[in-house]
């Protein structure tokens, strides 16, 4: 009986310490200044960079959209929407009743998305200005959250993940696409710019209340794709 109580106390203490470590991590920026360049981004230059044939993500955009498994009526959040590339690709997939929320920390990007959607007569997109600690999405407002080359820009990953989890409906999914760091052939700028490798991302997202479903192989050399599902707590 004493051994059982001792084991129970150790288990509770371990859970408490894990929880405390998450809280501490939430209060500290993991990469101060990582988003400084997006305080006033040059949109034209960003569009050329994000939507060029030289970018592997752009080359595989159709396969990426397919991996999201979008259905009519779904509400989707494109977190770190940037130029709106995937926002505009998602929009027709969730018609007639679904909405795509373009979430970004930079107001100029959101204004660009509004303009391009208006020009292309895309009417089911809403923009959301987020903060370094929150997506600013309403609770239980979306079925899927999509992030592409964005996770490494989460300055407060646990706080941001908590806001994503709140925004997702029960059973909602999170898709994370980011740069590979494990490959020795990765360029120096990736290793210097990207904080977390794939293993660390999986650990952080799992700790935040998600389970890893799978890792679709889209045959991209520089990026990986992870699909998570929100779990009950």
List keywords for this structure.
single chain, 233 residues, alpha/beta, Rossmann fold, seven-stranded mixed β-sheet, 9 helices, 20% strand, globular
Give the assembly state of these chains.
single chain
Reported by name, the CATH topology of the largest domain is Rossmann fold
Strand content: 15-25%
CATH architecture of the largest domain: 3-Layer(aba) Sandwich
Mean pLDDT: 88
Tell me the overall shape: globular
Q: Can you identify the CATH superfamily of the largest domain?
A: Vaccinia Virus protein VP39
Descriptive overview:
With 233 residues, the protein is α/β, with parallel strands linked by helices. The chain folds into 2 domains: 1-30; 33-230, Vaccinia Virus protein VP39 (Rossmann fold), CATH 3.40.50. Helices cover 39% and strands 20% of the residues. Strands 3-2-1-4-5-7-6 form a 7-stranded mixed sheet, sandwiched between helices. Strand 1 (76-79), helix 5 (85-90) and strand 2 form a beta-alpha-beta unit. The model is unreliable at 6-25 (pLDDT under 50).
């Amino acid at each position: 009986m004493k051994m059982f109580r001792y084991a129970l106390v150790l288990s509770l203490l371990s859970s408490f310490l894990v929880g405390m470590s998450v809280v501490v991590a939430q209060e500290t920026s993991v990469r101060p200044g990582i988003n400084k360049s997006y305080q006033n981004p040059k949109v034209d230059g960003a569009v050329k960079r994000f939507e060029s044939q030289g970018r592997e993500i752009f080359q595989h955009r159709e396969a990426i959209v397919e991996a999201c498994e979008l259905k009519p009526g779904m509400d989707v959040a494109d977190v770190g929407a940037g130029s709106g590339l995937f926002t505009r690709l998602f929009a027709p997939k969730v018609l007639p009743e679904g909405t795509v929320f373009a979430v970004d920390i930079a107001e100029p990007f959101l204004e660009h998305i509004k303009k391009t959607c208006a020009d292309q007569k895309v009417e089911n997109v809403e923009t959301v200005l987020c903060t370094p600690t929150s997506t600013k999405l309403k609770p239980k407002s979306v079925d899927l959250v999509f992030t592409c080359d964005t996770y490494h820009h989460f300055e407060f990953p646990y706080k941001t993940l908590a806001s994503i989890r709140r925004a997702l409906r029960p059973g909602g999914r999170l898709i994370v696409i980011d740069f590979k760091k494990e490959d020795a052939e990765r360029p120096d700028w990736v290793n210097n710019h990207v904080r977390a490798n794939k293993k660390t991302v999986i650990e952080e997202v799992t700790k935040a209340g998600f389970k890893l479903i799978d890792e679709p192989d889209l045959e991209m050399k520089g990026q990986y794709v992870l699909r998570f599902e929100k779990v009950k707590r």
